[in-house]
Amino acid sequence: MNPKQLVGEKATTYIKDGMIVGLGTGSTAYFAIMKIGELVKNGLSIKGVPTSKATEELAISLNIPLLAIEDVVKIDVTIDGADEFDANKNLTKGGGAALLREKIIASVTDFYVIIADAAKGSQFLGSFAVPVEVTAFGKEITIAQLKALGCIPKLRYKEGELLLTDNQNYIVDCKFEKIENPAQLSAQMNALPGVVENGLFAGMANVIISEDGKGSTITID
Ligand SMILES: O=C(CO)[C@H](O)[C@H](O)COP(=O)(O)O
């Protein structure tokens, strides 16, 4: 089985009848959502909370009942992907530009399940550039301020155009070297006025489900 499908389906074992479930974004979360669609079709009663417009469309196509974000107070389980994870389950997310909605949803989640292939894991974060969502207004100033924190910043484009997030903001990918203290760096970035949110998820994941390259899952908790 495709490793993304393997970890995606395994993650759905944390879902129980009656739960409110955060639905992640990306090619790994896709397989978890497909499985949830199958479980719902077979009688599982849950309500989903999508982390992006793309995921919302997928969930609707699978007839997964959804909650409007304004009706969400607490989420039982969220299943989402990651671009990188370290030895302390800190994450870099936002490769799919959904980091703001993903972090808001993670922040009210009781049990946050991350699914990611083993190649995304290392002792320290820093291989993957940290995506940072910034306002359009003053983006050049914000980019200079991010650079002063020690990264090489790069405004993200898609198909030749500046990428606009679901929230009508831009993404700056910030390439740092070894990130030894993700919580501190996250706070420094979020202290900049033009930063809406950053893709470092420090101390949020309860469990990471990965695979061993031989068809078995590895659970890091
Ligand atoms: O953070 C994300 C989207 O904003 C994704 O979870 C992350 O980019 C991983 O995606 P994939 O499973 O496709 O590798």
Mean pLDDT: 97
End-to-end C-alpha gap: 23 Å
Indicate the low-confidence ranges by residue numbers: none
CATH class of the largest domain: Alpha Beta
The number of helical segments is 6
CATH-defined topology of the largest domain:
Rossmann fold
Number-wise, the strands total: 15
Describe the protein's architecture and organization.
By secondary structure, this protein is of the alpha/beta class. The protein folds into two domains: 3-122 and 203-220, Rossmann fold (3-Layer(aba) Sandwich), CATH 3.40.50.1360; 130-196, Alpha-Beta Plaits, CATH 3.30.70. It has six helices and 15 strands. It has helices at residues 3-11, 29-41, 53-61, 99-107, 139-147, 182-190; strands spanning 20-23, 47-50, 75-81, 84-85, 91-92, 109-115, 130-134, 152-155, 157-158, 161-162, 170-175, 195-198, 200-201, 207-211, 217-220. The chain has a six-stranded mixed sheet with strand order 2-1-3-6-14-15, with helices on both faces. Strands 8-11-7-12 form a four-stranded antiparallel sheet. A three-stranded antiparallel sheet has the order 4-5-13, covered by helices on one side. Helix 1 (3-11) packs across helix 2 (29-41). The mean pLDDT is 97.
List keywords for this structure.
single chain, 221 residues, alpha/beta, Rossmann fold, Alpha-Beta Plaits, 2 domains, six-stranded mixed sheet, four-stranded antiparallel sheet, 6 helices, 26% helix, globular, binds ribulose-5-phosphate
Provide a brief overview of the structure.
One of its GO terms (molecular function) is ribose-5-phosphate isomerase activity. The chain has helices at residues 3-11, 29-41, 53-61, 99-107, 139-147, 182-190; strands at residues 20-23, 47-50, 75-81, 84-85, 91-92, 109-115, 130-134, 152-155, 157-158, 161-162, 170-175, 195-198, 200-201, 207-211, 217-220.
